[in-house]
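Could you please review the protein record set out just below?
***
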Amino acid sequence: MKCPFCGYYEDRVIDSRISRDGSEIRRRRECLGCGKRFTTHELVEEVLPVVVKKDGRRESFDPAKISSGIKKACEKRPISADSIDALVENVKHLCQEFQGKEISSQAIGEAIMQELQKLDGVAYVRFASVYREFRDISDFFDELKDILRKKNVAPNVRKVRRHVPESEA
């Protein structure tokens, strides 16, 4: 490891500690050239598949994009930042476990929706409305009926009477 102070390439490790979550090792080192101490952090290199978009474009997997979409869906909902971070990590982990070198954006979107559905119904519908490109209220209604059917709850739907102006009556 190159010393950040003098540029010498030899050092000795004085102390090593594993982070709380076990994903990183912190090492205290002492340069054998100048004697100064510095800290390094060692991480496992993540291997993530390339994302294939709907239009066929390919781009690098970006957890920040997933986080951004989830945060928008969870806006003004009683969902902690830790829960959002955990959801992003779960989706990232699913993508890492994927056996291929490429993964479709649809597969990622479906994984996000499954995780959101467990976390918060409103956030799920918000995300689904953008992801599935809902065009009108009937698309929302169909999705809500599907959610209720999956939960084995009989939908208590009231018939909404259309307001007819007196001039048409």
Confidence is low (pLDDT under 50) at residues 157-164. Strands lie at 11-18, 24-31, 37-43, 50-52, 58-59, 102-104.
